[in-house]
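User: I'm preparing a small set of examples for a lab meeting where we compare how different chains pack in three dimensions. I only have the primary sequence for this one, and I'd like the structure in token form so I can line it up with the others. Please keep the answer compact; I'll paste it straight into my notes.
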Amino acid sequence: MRYVAIGDSFTEGVGDELQDGTPRGWADLVAAGLSAALAERGETVEYANLAIRGRLLLPIVTTQLDAALALQPAADLITLNGGGNDMMRTGFDLAALIAQTEQAIDRCAAAGVRLVVLSGADPSAQLPFGRIMRRRATDLTAAVAEVCARREVTFVDAFGDVEIRDRHYWSPDRLHLNGDGHQRVAGLVLHALGYGPLPVPGTRGSAGRQSVVANARYYREHVLPWVRRRLRGHSSGDDRDPKYAQWQPVGASRG
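Assistant: Understood. Below is the structure token output for the 255-residue chain.
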């Protein structure tokens, strides 16, 4: 099986870094899970991950999908997530995002590649302007779910997973999942693909309010740098290349 993941920081694996600083994340864990499952049948898995942090949906379904469909030998499975960065910008256009998603579905169907679409997990309770994010994400998730149901495309609703909203699944920036969060998303995807059980709830974190000192540190270390990048027209993914641009053999040890 050849599996390629496209998307933004969620799919790149930001928040779940290995000791050398390389992000791992749910897509790497899905590749490892597929490898472990298929090894029992004497089959192997090759994996590519073209996701880059900060990317809007349009370059994901054009530049990244172009590269995914151009891989040789051809992919058997593609996972797609996007739209999270679009929701954090002015001019959010739900209709355009749905049209872009449908374009990706059409292209994968024409290429004979199975597509799995994911919604991102929901960090809105922890974020400044979280209510706006929650409203936009709710509308986008519902619309994408409807499109996938109508087109018979597998949809993994990480946004609707209430368990993953618990604080202990999130990294210090409150926007990206940590290792536990990525493990849970990987479990949701493998379950949707028929390669594992539905993940069970983990150990609940503290539900108390963040201290004034912790919030001040959060704004200084995470919010203000994001605001500065937006004002300068920069993205966290500028000048970054995909971590696995070509097929990589996968063993279960990757997870």
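A couple of notes for your slides: The chain has one domain: 2-199. The CA atoms of residues 1 and 45 lie 5 Å apart.

User: Perfect, thanks.
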